[in-house]
Amino acid sequence: MNDQARPSRGRRPGPDKRYRRPVKDPVRFLAFEALRAVDERDAYANLVLPPLLRKAREKDGFDARDAALATELVYGTLRRQGTYDAIVADCVDRPLREVDPPVLDVLSLGVHQLLGTRIPSHAAVSASVELARVVLGDGRAKFVNAVLRKVARDDLDTWVQRVAPPYDEDPEDHLAVVHSHPRWIVSALWDSLGGGRAGIEDLLAADNERPEVTLVARPGRATTDELLAEEAAVPGRLSPYAVRLAEGGEPGAVAAVREGRAGVQDEGSQLVAVALANAPVEGSDARWLDGCAGPGGKAALLAALAAERGAFLLAAEKQPHRAGLVARALAGNPGPYEVVVADGTRPAWRPGSFDRVLVDVPCSGLGALRRRPEARWRRRPEDLEGFAPLQRGLLREALAAVRVGGVVGYATCSPHLAETRVVVDDVLRGRGGGAPVRAEWVDARPLMPGVPELGEGPDVQLWPHRHGTDAMYLALLRRTG
Q1: Which active-site residues does the annotation give?
Q2: Mean local confidence (pLDDT), 123-133
């Protein structure tokens, strides 16, 4: 099989055969463009896809069904990439690394249509081959056709049984192929979660589900009742400020979102901000700090909660463009606030000058794999070593910024132990640089009333399969000296 054959369009057609030019399918072409951007530029699909869809609505007349199909093709392909790669590898006569990435993208899109959607097999194959003719040429389209016809012979369950090693022989590799996660992530999540096979399978399966769109009604600016009056809106499950949009609901169509009085925010993120705002402090409660404020979701909720108490919020963000996003999110807040470009590890504020401090630190993002499925294929175990000094430095400076009796919230969108409890323990005990910090744990569980399965505390780890949220982590610490 030769996927490098030259296209035939430059040849003169025979007397009984006319060359048919390929026809571009705008939906599949857009999905291919998005996958190439993710692969070539390390872009994130949630940032690449919206502008492509806007352009397609204007230029190609995309309707809601077209946008929904394009979105499913992109996200479904990225979520199941590991499984699909294993299947394609079984159907080709060379290592996958020797197949050009654009060819693999077309193949993955085709495999997802065959095994992950209700598109009829003949339509999935023909549409994928036509896409290959448009973006790859006729020669490599023949290669795509041959591979997809092999894939089409069986369903997903049959393929998984064939390409995944038996669970009894290698549990982690089995789960990695079945649930499309790198093996090291399976191992790390299993360590963090604990328990047997059922729990980790539920978690990995939840990572592959399409997350709901969740809105936050910013206190004093919007109410959940206002948001619930919108079409396709239903109450949130855990946060008192949350409203969920049913499938197909468009946040941009909600007036409160357009006006900045509400925003799009996962319930886990909302719960972290609310818990920090409600943690008991000794003495004054007038000055709050968000030390890692970009892109502004938690800062906007904190600013609204602070305004209800007459408190001031300082929102600090190191990257200027992200600080601009924070300023946009906080615009119109009724209470006093300020947005500054500042490095939380080299703060410009005086030590002990805040009553509450939140640091939602940069991390691996392993808690948001539902929303950024491509992240699982980019991250490497050594990446955690790069985050560790920054995470410890931010927490140390946050504890220095809060006064005695005040509270610090350490949050991260990762369940990996090396980014959660280990960081907090190291800072409190003076490991990994810096002196021990005099602070005590605050039990975060009572500050999330109605949220089930919060473990033994005092810190909290949320989970997609248990709570329907991103895997947010929160540790609350009160400064004692």
Answers
A1: 413
A2: 98
